[in-house]
């Protein structure tokens, strides 16, 4: 298997040095960039598996970088912020980030999340399939099809959709979804679930489909065929 590549975009050289010290022994290549413009240039000319993106950057900030990445790529994005503000967390998820950490961050924790993202991206030819009306989800390869057309989702969007469709017809609480999709103790706001559901609806729900992602007031969400 070819070595994987992580792009780090942070204006602090110490962050690059500390993360590289953990990534390189794992045979993970590192591309270092110190501003958003450079990160976008590197992503358009190199194969990258995961992006570690700071919000506070010179020039265009990390949120705008994330928005621009999502125009051409579904790459896994781990966003990092020194603010530790839930507003930043929610905005980061809204613009397309898959994961979010507040500084100071542990390089080992970042490594663990990078390795999990890489593992999820590796395809399994004997994967299971979930279908509901016009919707087809192949969770192991992170592929989603609507009426036979492949729909590009981020990894977190695909994981949320997989969890919903694998429990089609059941009401799932926000806390249950957070635990299942994030896979670790999430120290944040359950609005992260609302943000991901909003993004899924924007990408999947059309007039000609016969399924719905329905809100259950005060509880959570359910995916089901239209009656």
Task: Give me the count of strands.
Answer: 12
Overall residue-averaged pLDDT value: 87
Share in helix: 25-40%
- Estimated share of beta-strand residues: 15-25%
The H/E string reads EHEHEHEHEHEEEEHEHHEE
Strand ordering within the main sheet: 2-1-3-4-5
Task: Tell me what the structure shows.
This protein is of the alpha/beta class and 227 residues long. It has helices at residues 13-23, 36-45, 62-69, 86-94, 107-121, 155-166, 174-182, 191-204, and strands spanning 4-9, 28-33, 50-54, 76-81, 99-102, 130-132, 135-138, 143-146, 149-151, 172-173, 211-216, 220-225. The protein is 39% helix and 24% strand. A hairpin with a 3-residue loop joins strand 11 and strand 12 (220-225). Helix 4 (86-94) packs parallel to helix 8. It is globular. The relative contact order is 0.11.
